[in-house]
Every structure is written in C-alpha cells, then in structure tokens.
Design goal:
- The chain is an alpha+beta fold.
- It contains two helices and seven strands, in the order ααβββββββ.
- The strands form two sheets. The protein has a four-stranded mixed sheet with strand order 1-2-4-3, with no helix packed on it. A three-stranded antiparallel sheet has the order 5-7-6, with no helix packed on it.
Length: about 130
Amino acid sequence: MIRKLLRRAGTTPAATALAAAALAAAALAVGASAAEAGPGDQVRSAGQDVGVTRVHRAWACDIPAGHTYSSVRINTRCAWRYEYYLLDAVNYNLTGTYACSIPSGYTYTASQLGSNCSTSGSGYEYRLLRL
C-alpha cells in the first residue's frame, strides 16, 4: 500500500509532503510496541486475519485466538464497545497472572472478585497456572 502511494505521489515537493503525511498517519495507526504498551496507549485491532502480529500487554478492540485479557474498559476508538488489555497465553507463560478468562492450556489456582474484568461492577479474576 505504501509503495503504491509513493509511486502515485511522484517526486514533487507537494507529493513528497503528501507521502510523508501518509507515512506519519500509518505510524500513528500502528502505535507503540506491545512491550511498551500501557493503559493509556494506542488501541490496536488484533483481528483474526492471517499475518496479524500477535499482541501482548496491549489494548485492543477484539480478543484474538490464544489470548486472554486482564482488564476491560469502554472506549470510543472501539466504536463505544469494550477494549481489552491483552495477554498472549501461547507465547508467554502467564502462570501467577490474574486474568478475566481462562485460556486453553491453563487452569486457575485462585479466583477473586475485582473491578478489572467488568465495566459495570465486580467480575471474577482468575490466577492462572499453565498445564
């Protein structure tokens, strides 16, 4: 997509400025790396598409396969739907981590009522143990 844009833009100063603006917009859409993500960071749409980068410790509008989440909130960037703070249960060992759902390949050793897993009150959180 970026190559097509650059080919169409040409090499005039106005075209170069347009291409730079498009690249900056694309960089904003991608956001920070998952390792640097925190509660106020860029929202990602993880999706189920082939080739989508897996996310860990990042906010997203959807929960992809192999992930669980440890917090939920409502956000306008997700069309007023929930967004989830994702944890990658496939590529990371989440033993000892509290999560809102129990992913495949895990069980739980404790549960507690908390406010992280529900936007409208208390929800259960589960302390995970990898099988």
